């Protein structure tokens, strides 16, 4: 997973990053709440780890900003020296998913993060997934629309599955390249744009089928389930698709 860590003490941050790296995760560390929020709101992360006491704001303030501004329920873990029952209750009530006291114990931190990952993506182990008129068979690697099998390349299938499993979430081009293509961030992101334009047509992502790929200017894409009013009047996506 891609994890964002809020930790102002350099040694602590390096220790936590080392634990996460050994577990196969990528972790970016930020020393202030403002830097952390800017990154989280403009990049794509799978999970957040927050300290409580940081220089410019509290971890609770950061958590409340994340829940108010991020458009999907990203898992959040508190990792802090504050371990009173009142603090734990306050963090959980504010929207945290888990709470750990420092110092971080490698095995426990890794296990809790893996458990949160499973809970945040309950469809990951299902063989057949259904999203409105779309049916995705993850074992046979087949996607059907209204019961009719679609003709897709292997990469189109991988991209479609990732989009539906993360619908409503901003996905940057860099993240899509990493997760779907397995490429480093310095690869030309036009590859993603080309595939997105093609998927809009091949999948029939339009008002009639209830989903659309929304382009987020200079940031990436988001698969959205369309509401009734969106389906009745949608001029945004066809125009964007024509310009891709």
From TrEMBL:
GO molecular function: phosphorelay response regulator activity; transcription cis-regulatory region binding
Response regulatory domain span: 2-117
Residue ranges for the DNA-binding region feature of this UniProt entry: 126-225
The OmpR/PhoB-type domain, residue ranges: 126-225
GO cellular component terms, semicolon-separated: cytosol; protein-DNA complex
Residue numbers bearing the 4-aspartylphosphate modification: 51
UniProt keyword annotation of DNA-binding present: yes
GO biological process, alphabetically ordered: regulation of DNA-templated transcription
Entry keyword set: DNA-binding, Phosphoprotein, Two-component regulatory system
Protein name: DNA-binding response regulator
Lineage start: Bacteria, Pseudomonadati, Pseudomonadota, Gammaproteobacteria, Pseudomonadales
